[in-house]
């Protein structure tokens, strides 16, 4: 079987070059660097590194899914700034014995996710590494508009979210415990589905601050609160919840294991003795769905897809129903 | 000792934020993405991944040197396109037990190298990884000029280089064999010194194609020959050579080892029985000095620092003194 070691450093890039580039890539792979359109005169840029065993598991996700996920989390960052993604650069480290087919499927995943927003892979680097590592940089164009930062929330604003909360974390819980359903939750872990139109929608609604939820709603709203110099209170009853895990079934092929400490909040006994985490806990602390959280002037009327989950006040920090959340005090949040 | 695991994902970015940003960084670390000036309306972008054990060794290079090298090789790619580097994004993977001091020195190296060209670290990502990995993305601005690609060489052009050839490869040979000098060669391996003014100089000389030498002059000129649809012949007697390794001394603390097969071309017996590679071989095949190789119209008069090493003709491929080089036929090149 042909390995990426056989291909050499330029091999993967050549494979990518075979795919058509979007109009924003003025000079693609093959030179010392790419040249990408930045008609706005500014470029939005972000980079994320995904590491085997930490951000994905080779036995839980296909290379195609890993590619989709790696692209999605970077594209979501660009969209969270209110920009249109234009191009990706992909650094890829893997054992030289990695099959070309594996790398091709990874690349296909990246390209297909980028296609959703009209972005292209403009360049990259392939290196040998004992640890499968994917470093994606995403670039975007603001189209003359101001960036949507984390610092613009004002007292009196409402907090709203667009996208799923806690789905990917639910899927991870299922995989960690050898459970094979609900399939939609496992799929959500493997392949996040950010609502890439969120920034455009948010601008039309008068958004004051915005970010993508990558580390959990509580933690990420903490960044908006800190950088905006405000307090944010979440109303637990308003938070959209992932489907319940109570009906999840044990896979015949796998033995349930105890979930990692701190990752889940045991609340009731599930199938096979595995504690079932609370949906509200998952919605407030689960990352990786790449929902968008944003603040808007009070009284904003939202279209379908947006859910008000809280409000902004004078002060500092994030509270839930007026109380400071604590990972040890999760009972507080149970409905 | 404080580790990067204690700092958390945002820690390193905060450390970086403490350094002043250049004027091109319109929005720095702390949001979902950075915003960087791209006054030209296009942005030059490149990414390189450096992996422990493959691109650097923790016992041979200090974290500061690794940072300098990681930045230099990406900045050189931007300069090779004829652009002014504006910003870097740094993805950093390391065991969570890595000391904060180690990471700080790495970051200092990156920032100091970027300072040489007025670029700043605009963002990044820090993740846990069993393998120390540094993924650097560099951005640059073309200032209204066309990019300097690999595809513009024309028959009749001369080939000239700016910077060192074979120095870093010589230093690597010394380290691999437990030799402690010449110190300037070991330093060249640890910290390349690209001549960042090369692109500006080349433009003023009417450059037709340009690239940075990262994989060795022969291999890299092969890319210019292929993309320009021309043949390139190198005149061996014109190639600037690194200092001879014949006088290199054996470190008292280390036992010489046999160099890796294929990496060096034994030509004479050195101290301690270690074969000494031929300087011309090192100059033609050694990468990592990040010299710049470029083509110019025939008859171009070069200022100090530039060395003509060959010429461009009709045809294809790269020859040395009219013959096709072969790694097995290195005797051909010995003077």
Cα-based radius of gyration of chain A, to the nearest Å:
21 Å
Instruction: Sketch the topology of chain A as an H/E string, one letter per element.
Output: HHEEEHEHEEEHHHEHEEEHEEE
Distance between the termini of chain A: 54 Å
Q: Show unreliable segments of chain A.
A: 251-269, 328-335
Examine the coordinates and then state which fold CATH places here, giving the name of the CATH topology of the largest domain in chain A. Phosphoribosyl-aminoimidazole Synthetase, Chain A, domain 2
**Domain unit count of chain A:** 2
Largest interface: A-B, 65 and 65 residues
- DSSP helix fraction of chain A: 25-40%
Mean pLDDT of chain A: 88
By CATH, the architecture of the largest domain in chain A is named Alpha-Beta Complex
- CATH-assigned homologous superfamily of the largest domain in chain A: PurM-like C-terminal domain
Number of helices of chain A: 9
Overall outline of chain A: globular
Oligomeric composition of the shown chains = homodimer
For the sheet with most strands of chain A, the description reads:
6 strands, mixed
Tally of strands of chain A:
14
The largest sheet of chain A has its strands arranged as 8-12-7-13-9-14
Share in β-strands of chain A: 25-35%
Name of the top-level CATH class of the largest domain in chain A? Alpha Beta
Structural class of chain A: alpha+beta
């Amino acid at each position: 079987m042909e390995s990426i070691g056989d291909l050499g450093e330029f091999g993967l890039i050549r494979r990518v070059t075979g795919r058509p580039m979007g109009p924003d890539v003025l000079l693609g792979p093959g030179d010392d660097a790419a040249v990408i359109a930045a008609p706005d005169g500014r470029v939005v840029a972000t980079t994320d590194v995904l590491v085997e065993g930490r951000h994905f598991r080779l036995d839980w996700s296909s290379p195609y899914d890993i590619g989709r996920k790696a692209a999605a989390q970077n594209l979501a960052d660009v969209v969270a700034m209110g920009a249109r993604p234009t191009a990706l650069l992909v650094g890829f480290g893997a054992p030289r014995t990695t099959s070309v087919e594996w790398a091709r499927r990874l690349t296909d995943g990246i390209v297909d996710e980028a296609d959703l927003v009209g972005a292209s892979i403009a360049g990259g680097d392939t290196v040998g590494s004992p640890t499968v590592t994917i470093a994606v940089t995403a670039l975007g164009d603001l189209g003359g508009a101001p960036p949507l930062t984390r610092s613009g929330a004002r007292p009196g604003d409402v907090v709203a979210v667009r996208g799923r909360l806690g789905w990917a974390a639910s899927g991870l819980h299922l995989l960690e415990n050898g459970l094979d359903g609900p399939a939609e939750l496992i799929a959500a872990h493997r392949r996040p589905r950010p609502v890439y139109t969120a920034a455009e929608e948010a601008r039309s609604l008068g958004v004051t601050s915005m970010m993508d939820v990558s580390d959990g709603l509580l933690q990420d709203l903490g960044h908006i609160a800190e950088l905006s110099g405000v307090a944010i209170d979440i109303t637990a009853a308003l938070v959209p919840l992932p489907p319940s895990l109570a009906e999840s079934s044990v896979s015949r092929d796998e033995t349930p294991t105890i979930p990692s400490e701190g990752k889940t909040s045991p609340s009731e006994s599930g199938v096979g003795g595995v504690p079932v985490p609370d949906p509200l806990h998952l919605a407030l602390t689960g990352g990786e769905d790449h929902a968008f959280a944003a603040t808007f002037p009070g009284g904003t009327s939202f279209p379908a897809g947006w859910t008000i989950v809280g409000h902004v006040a004078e002060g500092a920090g994030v509270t839930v129903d007026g109380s400071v959340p604590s990972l040890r005090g999760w009972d507080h949040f149970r409905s």
